[in-house]
Automatic annotation (TrEMBL):
Gene3D superfamilies in alphabetical order: Glutaredoxin
Domain (Thioredoxin): residue spans on this chain: 40-177
One Gene Ontology CC term in the entry: outer membrane-bounded periplasmic space
UniProt organism field: Zhongshania aliphaticivorans
Subcellular location: Cell inner membrane
Recorded superkingdom: Bacteria
Name under which the protein is recorded: Thiol:disulfide interchange protein DsbE
Gene label: dsbE_2
Keywords: Cytochrome c-type biogenesis, Disulfide bond, Redox-active center
Major localization class: membrane
MF GO annotations: disulfide oxidoreductase activity
Recorded topology in the membrane: Single-pass membrane protein
Family: Belongs to the thioredoxin family. DsbE subfamily.
Xref: SUPFAM superfamilies: Thioredoxin-like
């Protein structure tokens, strides 16, 4: 029994290493993506909300933003991946993609400074300081981006930073389907 106690840490370490390398192999082969958590909102209406706009404090509701296809991007100044994806969002907005954003659990001064310095690709930014709207969306962390159709139905959620590859493989086909045409915005 004493010998077993001596080898127990080694056995636990070995078991954890096998699990770690097994998951790593599945990630590398594409069998498992740690960001693929299902969203309960897919093919359901965007939750109702009433949030202040970051720019001027006016109250924005769901009725103010639906009516055409758009991206709903959840970001924060404290989020390292948000810094990475922001230039791509600016590019998408310049190409005509409508993007609404949710500044999630952030400081208003830092968020305004961020948009002034890095550019503002958003038609409106909802200030969600307490995270209540993020909770309604099922946000697990920033950044997250939702594709919302013209009727306000959540069609897709992507967890992680958007870039050209993700855009082309995940969003472009869905936009083409939503728009009912062979190409998208």
């Amino acid at each position: 029994m004493q010998r077993l106690k001596l080898f127990l840490p080694v056995l636990i370490f070995t078991l954890l290493a096998v699990i770690f390398f097994g998951v790593e192999r599945r990630v590398l082969t594409g069998d498992y993506a740690p960001t693929d958590l299902p969203s309960a909102l897919i093919n359901k209406p965007l939750p109702a909300f009433s949030k202040p706009a970051l720019s001027d404090g006016r109250i924005v509701t769901k009725a103010d933003i639906v009516g055409e296809v758009f991206l709903l991007n959840v970001w924060a100044t404290w989020c390292p991946s948000c810094h990475y994806e922001h230039p791509f969002l600016v590019k998408l907005a310049e190409e005509g993609m409508r993007i609404v954003s949710v500044d999630y659990k952030d400081e208003i001064t830092a968020a305004k400074r961020w948009l002034n310095e890095k550019g503002n690709p958003y038609t409106v930014t909802l200030f969600d300081q307490d995270g209540s709207f993020g909770l309604d969306l099922g946000v697990t962390g920033a950044p997250e981006t939702y594709l919302i159709d013209a009727e306000g139905i959540v069609r897709f959620r992507y967890q992680g930073a958007l870039d050209e590859r993700v855009w082309n493989t995940e969003f472009v086909p869905l936009l083409a389907e939503i728009n009912g045409q062979g190409k998208s915005q």
